[in-house]
């Protein structure tokens, strides 16, 4: 019990080590969610940037209005800004308008350029065609023509849009929680691993493993608080109806097991690393490395097969994969939970071995 | 005295292995992870023909010939139960014979949207033929369809080569190395404070102005950071193959100004934040990681958000400034963005150095 109390005294005594990262991580989560709030499951939105080199061609404002139905359209004045718009990810497709002609900037994924060029072409092409054949009420007829759209039938999941955003939230917090949990554990364990502390333990009647159980208890309570914060955030941001639906609960369960797994990883790390600086270094490399190659920051479609194979050794991959399967309503979801569970068992075994050696050393 | 302090600062910095880790090993590891995560999107595979089924003969005829940039987009197949084949994944999409068109797909995405664009252009072309034939019965339906059905006919070729995508992520890592000088700046200040370090006590009793110590410290730290940035640049450019454009002197100038910028920020943090070296270092590291996050290191959407809604942050965020300068040098020959950003960084560096000058003077009276 004393160890347990000491744990939280350490946390209280080091506000810089906890308050600053929490503030930074909370801001990062907020910004990430704000940046990805427009993720739409119902249509691929294309943002355009254009530069007028001379007079606006006839009907250009109508074209812009038409394009804005499927995304944002940004006018820019400098050619440099036009390219920067694509490279800053503000626009998916950029074009120059000069002498009534369109010149596309050949940047961006080919599929997006195809779809964007097609949309521009449809509007401008039909206007020109109907004018050429002197069709009466050409503008209205083109508008009616363009209102015809293809219907795309896909398997539907109720409230999918909300679930996609919930998945984004959990995916990004996978990185943030890993950083937070590891950092807390390292800071506290460094104090418990100090020479002065170990000397006291040696002359105390409390055995070494009892103290370690107290430290583990403190870690687990801290992790439970982290879980409650992230879970509370998910309810606040996405609403109870999304979080407490079947897929939402599956993602939350997946997050809870993932959190348990990374807590055990962190605890194992504190068994083998004594220095706070080394621990912080390992934390940053592991957290960012795992997040990039498991697909927490980038869509999993971007990852090559070899990288996906390699990332299967990390719990983060199975957590993110589980969220994807929960979203699709696939039965394979439970397989990913099982894999993370197995990883927990392996980590417990490793912690047991590391602690067994330390207990013997302390006894000696 | 300059030479002596410069020499010992170099040796001192070399001994702090944490700086070597944060300023060199960590960014190299990060750029390697980025490369692993993004190699398939940076070097996208050419378009692959997707297996689809179309029930309408005319639509099927159009789809089998659709090409983009010289590559056929679809292969037509015939399945007994096409809806089930889509669900199984053996067929990517199924187009039943309906008007306006319908696509059956497992999920929405760029592939479904692209097919949707093609189908609706065929459908609209048919409607347009009907409309035009009413006005001009002599019109040639094939010519009408040809005029509007080609999805890219309205665009002329700009003649430019396509640039590599996603380089921004790697530029943020190099920006992070430049800003890694923050940690060196923090150490410089810490080492000159009499209340913080034994070196500071020794320097404090020397019959010299404290600010004169900071100059050799700053020059030595700058040299170290340039060395780290140089190694990172070589690794990212030659080992990972990320291009930085043709204007190498401008890239090097960005690294020099960026490193000096980072050093000046670090010295201000060292002076303003009180506490142990660890606390000050953590504030510095937190700042440059967060700055890199705002510049799009973890998500381009965050960069987009900042660019659109808080452009002033995009303009003064240290990592965004350095990243954008690298981007501008790669993406276009015009040096306007490069000059503008260098000017902003230079001005901010001068302001921070002014703050350092002022705060060092105050510290001298307070503690020594």
Summarize the structure.
By secondary structure, chain A is mainly α. Chain A has helices at residues 2-13, 15-35, 60-68, 79-87, 110-132, 138-147, 160-192, 195-203, 208-238, 240-243, 246-272, 276-294, 305-311, 315-328, 333-363; strands at 48-52, 73-75, 93-98, 101-104, 151-153. In chain A, strands 2-1-3-4 form a 4-stranded mixed sheet.
Can you characterise this structure?
The complex is a heterodimer of chains A (364) and B (368). Chain A is mainly alpha-helical and 364 residues long. Chain A folds into 2 domains: 2-37 and 159-363, no CATH class; 48-147, Rossmann fold (3-Layer(aba) Sandwich). Chain A contains 15 helices and 5 strands. Chain A has helices at 2-13, 15-35, 60-68, 79-87, 110-132, 138-147, 160-192, 195-203, 208-238, 240-243, 246-272, 276-294, 305-311, 315-328, 333-363; strands spanning 48-52, 73-75, 93-98, 101-104, 151-153. Chain A has a 4-stranded mixed beta sheet. Chain B has 368 residues and is mainly alpha-helical. Chain B has helices at residues 2-15, 17-42, 57-65, 82-88, 110-135, 141-149, 167-179, 181-192, 198-205, 210-239, 248-272, 277-294, 300-309, 311-316, 318-331, 336-367; strands at 50-54, 67-68, 71-72, 74-76, 93-95, 102-105, 155-156. In chain B, strand 2 and strand 3 form a beta hairpin. In chain B, helix 2 packs antiparallel against helix 7 (167-179), helix 8 (181-192) packs antiparallel against helix 10 and helix 11 (248-272) packs antiparallel against helix 15 (318-331). The mean pLDDT of chain B is 83. Chains A and B meet through helix 2, helix 4, strand 4, helix 5 and helix 6 of A and helix 2, strand 6, helix 5, helix 6 and strand 7 of B. Strand 4 (101-104) of chain A pairs parallel with strand 7 of chain B.
């Amino acid at each position: 019990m004393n160890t347990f109390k000491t744990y939280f005294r350490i946390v209280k005594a080091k506000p810089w080590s906890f308050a600053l990262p929490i503030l930074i991580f909370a801001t990062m989560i907020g910004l990430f969610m704000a940046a990805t709030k427009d993720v739409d499951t119902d249509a691929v939105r294309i943002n355009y940037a254009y530069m007028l080199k001379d007079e606006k061609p006839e009907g250009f404002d109508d074209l812009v209005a038409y394009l804005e139905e499927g995304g944002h359209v940004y006018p820019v004045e400098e050619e440099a800004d036009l390219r920067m718009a694509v490279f800053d990810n503000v626009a998916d497709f950029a074009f120059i308008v000069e002498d009534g002609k369109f010149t596309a900037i050949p940047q961006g994924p080919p599929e997006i350029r195809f779809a964007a060029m097609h949309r521009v072409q449809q509007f401008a092409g039909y206007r020109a065609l109907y004018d050429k054949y002197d069709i009466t009420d050409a503008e209205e007829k083109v508008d009616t023509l363009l209102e015809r759209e293809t219907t795309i039938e896909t398997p539907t999941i109720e409230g999918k849009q909300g679930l996609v955003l919930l998945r984004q939230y959990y995916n990004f917090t996978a990185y943030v929680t890993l950083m937070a949990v590891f950092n807390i554990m390292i800071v506290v364990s460094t104090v418990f691993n100090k020479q002065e502390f170990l000397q006291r333990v040696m002359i105390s009647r409390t055995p070494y493993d009892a103290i370690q159980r107290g430290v583990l208890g403190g870690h687990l309570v801290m992790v439970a608080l982290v879980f409650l914060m992230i879970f509370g955030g998910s309810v606040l941001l996405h609403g109870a109806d999304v979080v407490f639906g079947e897929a939402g609960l599956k993602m939350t369960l997946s997050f809870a097991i993932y959190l348990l797994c990374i807590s055990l990883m962190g605890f194992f790390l504190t068994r083998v690393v004594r220095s706070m600086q080394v621990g912080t270094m390992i934390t940053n490399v592991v957290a960012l490395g795992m997040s990039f190659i498991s697909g927490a920051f980038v869509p999993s479609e971007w990852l090559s097969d070899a990288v996906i194979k390699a990332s299967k050794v990390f719990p983060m991959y199975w957590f993110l994969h589980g969220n994807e399967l929960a979203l699709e309503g696939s039965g394979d979801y439970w397989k990913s939970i099982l894999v993370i569970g197995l990883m927990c068992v392996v980590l417990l075994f490793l912690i047991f071995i590391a602690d067994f050696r330390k207990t013997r050393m302390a006894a000696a | 005295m300059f030479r002596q302090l410069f020499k010992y600062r170099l040796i001192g910095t070399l001994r702090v292995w944490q700086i070597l880790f944060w300023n060199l090993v960590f960014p190299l590891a990060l750029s390697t992870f980025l490369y692993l995560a993004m190699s398939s999107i940076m070097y996208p595979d050419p378009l692959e023909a997707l297996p689809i089924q179309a029930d309408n003969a005319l639509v099927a005829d159009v789809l089998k010939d659709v090409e983009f940039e010289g590559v056929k987009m679809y292969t037509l197949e015939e399945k007994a139960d096409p809806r089930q084949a889509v669900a199984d994944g053996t067929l990517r999409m199924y187009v039943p014979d309906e008007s306006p068109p319908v696509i059956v797909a497992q999920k929405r995405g760029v592939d479904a949207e692209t097919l949707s664009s093609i189908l609706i252009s065929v459908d609209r072309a048919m409607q347009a033929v009907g409309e035009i034939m009413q006005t001009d019965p002599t019109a040639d339906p094939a010519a009408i369809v040809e005029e509007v059905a080609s999805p890219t006919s309205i665009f002329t070729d700009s003649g430019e080569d396509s640039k590599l995508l996603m380089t921004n992520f790697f530029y943020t890592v190099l920006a992070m190395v430049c800003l890694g000088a923050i940690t060196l700046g923090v150490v410089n200040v810490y080492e000159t404070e009499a209340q913080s370090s034994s070196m500071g006590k020794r320097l404090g009793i020397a019959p010299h102005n404290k600010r004169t110590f900071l100059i050799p410290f700053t020059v030595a730290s700058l040299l170290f950071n340039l060395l780290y940035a140089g190694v990172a640049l070589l690794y990212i450019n030659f080992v990972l193959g990320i291009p930085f454009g043709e204007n190498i002197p401008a890239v090097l100038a960005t690294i020099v100004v960026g490193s000096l910028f980072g050093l000046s920020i670090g010295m201000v943090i060292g002076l303003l934040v009180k506490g142990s070296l660890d606390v000050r270092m953590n504030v510095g590291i937190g700042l440059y990681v967060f700055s890199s996050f705002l510049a799009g290191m973890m998500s381009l959407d965050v960069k987009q958000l900042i660019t659109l809604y808080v452009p002033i942050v995009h303009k003064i965020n240290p990592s965004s400034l350095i990243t954008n300068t690298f981007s501008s040098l790669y993406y276009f020959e015009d040096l306007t963005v490069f000059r503008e950003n260098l000017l902003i960084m230079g001005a901010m560096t001068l302001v921070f150095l002014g703050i350092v000058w002022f705060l060092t003077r105050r510290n001298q009276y307070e503690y020594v």
